[in-house]
Amino acid sequence: MDVSTNCFLTLAPGVVRTPETDKVIFSLDSRLAMRGLKARVTSIKRTPEDQLRIIRDYCVKRGVANEFPEILYTRPVTGRDERPGYSTPIFYWQEAWSRLLSIGIIISPPLAAICLFDYFGKDGVNRKGKAIPPSPHFFGKAFDIGGGPNGIGDELSFIKAAASDPAVGIKKYTVERENNAIHIDVL
Fold this sequence. Notes:
By secondary structure, the chain is an alpha+beta fold. It contains 5 helices and 9 strands, in the order E-H-E-H-H-E-E-H-E-E-E-H-E-E.
């Protein structure tokens, strides 16, 4: 079960593998082959610093860095500041990350953090003031499949079918339209 030999679900350069995700990725390769599709795993294991870099990139791309320029600072991910309107110090990146959520960019924080602005999840519940856990990527229990030039349509129909088979090992999946990817949590 060596995913580095996969022909249909391949790994992007630099992707850090885990045993938990290897099993699922290996299983998906033969299923993609049967459909004549090819796809690429773009991310598996990440660090909090990797997650912060992704958040910064979104903040620049979506103009959030103009509102919260501190997101561009080079500081430890654990850095906190006293800010007006908050009773305790907050992470220097927390307002920018919360703004991304409020404008519909769904991304986990680099560390568990309270969402500071209105953000309504898929269930319609406002998560403002609620703790959001860090990404399952940190624990090596998730991976992303990037969409091709036509978006994620082919990949999504394939993943829906694969997720219905318990033997594959997919816990759940989330469409990341902004990232042209499908996030997959494994059992």
